[in-house]
Here is the input.
Amino acid sequence: MKLPCPITGPKPYHHGDLRRALLEAASRVLEREGPNALSLRAVAREAGVSPAAPYHHFKDKSELMLAISEEGFDQLYKFMLQSSDPDAPPMERVAAIGVAYVEFAKAHPSIYRVMYDCSRDLESLPDKAHKAEDGAFSLLKKAMIDLGVVSSDQEVDLELACIAAWCAAHGLAEMVGFRQFDSLKAKMGGEKAFLAGVLSHLGMFGQARNRG
Amino acid sequence: MKLPCPITGPKPYHHGDLRRALLEAASRVLEREGPNALSLRAVAREAGVSPAAPYHHFKDKSELMLAISEEGFDQLYKFMLQSSDPDAPPMERVAAIGVAYVEFAKAHPSIYRVMYDCSRDLESLPDKAHKAEDGAFSLLKKAMIDLGVVSSDQEVDLELACIAAWCAAHGLAEMVGFRQFDSLKAKMGGEKAFLAGVLSHLGMFGQARNRG
DNA sequence: TCTCAATCTAAACGTTGTCAAGATGAACTT
DNA sequence: AAGTTCATCTTGACAACGTTTAGATTGAGA
Here is the structure.
């Protein structure tokens, strides 16, 4: 009856892999209609199932959102990874990671929105983002270690430096979205120059100005 | 019938000043039940009026939210103002403003949430926050001018420095809410030390560590 | 082939944002 | 002083939402 999606591998049950399908549907809704249109029912509709179907794969809406958020942080990690040459000098690498973070947020504002809306509700970032070895925060930490900016209290100071960098990147990622700064961007000849300009004022990203 | 609130001054119409009452009701709902419970109907209920009553004072829900957001940015401005001694050295003043920003967000997380949820929807900060002479951004800018950190291109570089500071403060304000950093805070002997530690890594707030 | 349990649907409930129609009553006119 | 006006508020309704319950479907193992 229902042809198994030829790629999805072992089709577990009726649909094939509704969990996966729902996440992809959510991604489509997000790109097409924005974060405010991302309802459970809209996702189910997009996936072609009933409004109650998602409840067999997610406890409630917030759990669906968390899954989307985790996927987002994973995409962010991969983008940061491919944007930072591991053989480049540490400072350049840190700057590249920061720029990649902001560019990701600008390129996928809806996903970025969900990533943090979800985190704010749970009052914690997903493990995928912070704890995981193959996550965005760990990638930043490795680059920071190579940079060697830590002072007396090694462990604590390294963590603080990474948090500071994350704060700066997140803050900037949210600000670039605001129209208040459009005229300044224009005056500087583009958003890229604007980003570099702000980053150069932000401690650990001093070198960002020398990129591109 | 309805006794006019003796303080509110000239009672305009039936209720007295429903617009004001709604904003105060919203504030109460926000403190009591958090940002996710802040519905138009809940606010109307709290103010003791029908669900449709607010529509005579606000075009729709988003306009109510904007008004709440503007009030929040105004409170933030006032708190920053009273937290920064105008006679203190500029660097100390900038640091005090940054610390005040983060402390405000931590003390009123629900209001802070609404302030930015609203801004993200409109893709712009309220004029109260950025444009207004008696606003938070202007206060920061004045302190920055006194600091004299601007380089060659005066105007642009000053603006960039202020934006960078705002980004850093906002980023940190959102991060302190995450439980990921609780253990680090404990290890450092409290949140205040944590905040100072992160701020000291963030460019223009280098002096923050020397406070308190 | 029969059974079973995972999966999905159908239908319903309470809640939300919003609107149209009508009731109310303060202020202005005469 | 009485009547008119119009902003203000209420009533009642609508569609959409998140969620739950009960029942239908169907792949997989006996």
